[in-house]
Amino acid sequence: MSTFQPDTVVIGGGIIGLTTALALSERGQTVTVVDPGRREGVSSWAGGGILSPLYPWRQHPAVNALAKRSQQVYPELCRQVRDRTGIDPELRSLGMLYADFPSHPPLDRETARDWAREQGVEFQELGGDELPAAEPELSPVAEYGMRMPGISWVRNPRLMRGLRSLALDGGVEILDGALALRLREQGGTIRGVETDAGSVEADRVVVAAGPWSTQLLGQVGWDLPVRPVKGTMLLLQGWHPVLEQVVMTGSHYLIPRADNRILVGSTTEEAGFDNRTVLGSVRALSQAAVEMVPETANLELETFWSGLRPGSPDERPFVGPVPGVDGLYVSSGHYRNGVVHAPASAELLAAQMTGSEPPLDPEPFAPGRSLSEGEE
Amino acid sequence: MSTFQPDTVVIGGGIIGLTTALALSERGQTVTVVDPGRREGVSSWAGGGILSPLYPWRQHPAVNALAKRSQQVYPELCRQVRDRTGIDPELRSLGMLYADFPSHPPLDRETARDWAREQGVEFQELGGDELPAAEPELSPVAEYGMRMPGISWVRNPRLMRGLRSLALDGGVEILDGALALRLREQGGTIRGVETDAGSVEADRVVVAAGPWSTQLLGQVGWDLPVRPVKGTMLLLQGWHPVLEQVVMTGSHYLIPRADNRILVGSTTEEAGFDNRTVLGSVRALSQAAVEMVPETANLELETFWSGLRPGSPDERPFVGPVPGVDGLYVSSGHYRNGVVHAPASAELLAAQMTGSEPPLDPEPFAPGRSLSEGEE
To answer: Which domains does chain B possess?
Structure first.
């Protein structure tokens, strides 16, 4: 149970909750994080850590704007985490290679090319004969590749541990193992939250509980259209460096870690809150990995898991005040971009909560925005 | 360390070692089993427990003869284990369905049919339209099936625990966690074995250490041509009964357990003593499972593992006295048929060691038999 009344309670100890708590703390607020302490099935831990939307040229401009702001922040954030906590989030900036295989629909080359030119994003196109030099272990069946050398990634479980440590060092209180049960609201004003370890009173509450946010906000009559979308990952243990960069085809990617591990992702499954890994997903991922990079067939499968992403109808997160309840805020619905969007979402929300200038337009992420098809 | 000098030391606590110890004990001998206590990578634990060679009609008659003897023994053995130890090896006698898919080379129907007729083995052939009734969840792509209703299987890890308990109850001493280091031989006569937990003296030693037998026997100058052959398995957790029987296509099979789990096997990989599971094997097994029974795609993948089978050049085990060293015996090289052949191999060896009538001709399994191609 909390020993003091913080300025703000953040519900959720995932990457959104932790970065939000840090941002508020840096702005002089006292913050308590209510964290059920569960890692299994939580997408902050389960994801791959690529610091870009997977196909940025297909995204809503606001999704890319939020990502861009995060990309500016990440190098310094990772340095801080490493220097202050001794935990290295392994930020790697080795780029990403999108590969075309005859068995898949081809990449939308022109759209990507135009987008990269407009955005000033570094972009290379590679013919089949140029691919072996760019990525020696890529299957020779690949016909064409697009390389975006500016894409980075982190080792997200390490980043999570580091952020947690950073938050604690910075005076953030973390109620570990506490599950938020009920929002406390009175006459249209938030009062705090009841957890299974007691109540915490606060004049401001941020719901950053991923797909579990929906149920909490429903208690105060707010229908947050966020749903769990399961994603499965495989972890391979390499004995030597296999990949130079992230490699992606279709919906599947391979992420090389600094210790020669390779993450294989991912699936998007609508299965409610069931985070068990089904055989069909492992089949799809193992098949895709071997198709892209045949050498992965010889690597050890160390383990596998699945996490629940907070899916949003327009694939944009909900970041801002919850209409109708004073002092209640939400930051959820980041879908596949939780790690990508976390630092910028935290800045955006903290600015709104403290009345300072937001780093980018909050409107596209407003919880009360219209989600009807006609207006998209 | 052993507290007395047993009549026989059995090196190996796998299914061959345990059944051999039991058979000798039943014949009035005192027996000590040297068991490193390792389960990981050991095929007795890792296998699927089908009580038949996978394609019996393609086997050497001696392999089937040994299997047939075991099949006669298993029901009573399983009953004994269950009644005396309370551990149920889950003997299931629901038959096996071999299915033809257009993507695989067709079954050798005529050979199988002839073999079954000659052997008096129950055998049914099913056209594509008859398969749904025989196995409702089998993929409709299957074109033809052969059913052998007499094939049974056990839950081998339970059988192992039960046999161990039965052996201990029967007075067999098990040196748990003891690794055999060296055979002790003097002037052409065995004297015992040195383990990392001390020496055990005995006038008779049985090497039943699976693929690890080769190194031990090499110490006394006997070149046992047994090598590790890795096999990978997947364990699925079903929420409802999916299969009526074992289903097999090509080199892959699905075994339904009584609790709705399904085992998916297996691969044959030459990778020395490396029992790590590689992605390529998981890919092959998951693909085969979904191809045979599409519903498996929706089942939870609970875990996976790999075991090392003791491969033999002619796929027949080596059971009998080791030429040149009095009192030294071997029972190894059972390859994919360790569980199938264990009780009969144990009887066969115990008969030879105690001078009684063997249950079948020992010659095809003699350690000194010729292995040259021309004589096969």
So the answer is: 8-57+157-226+314-375 (3.50.50.60), 96-149+227-311 (3.30.9.10)
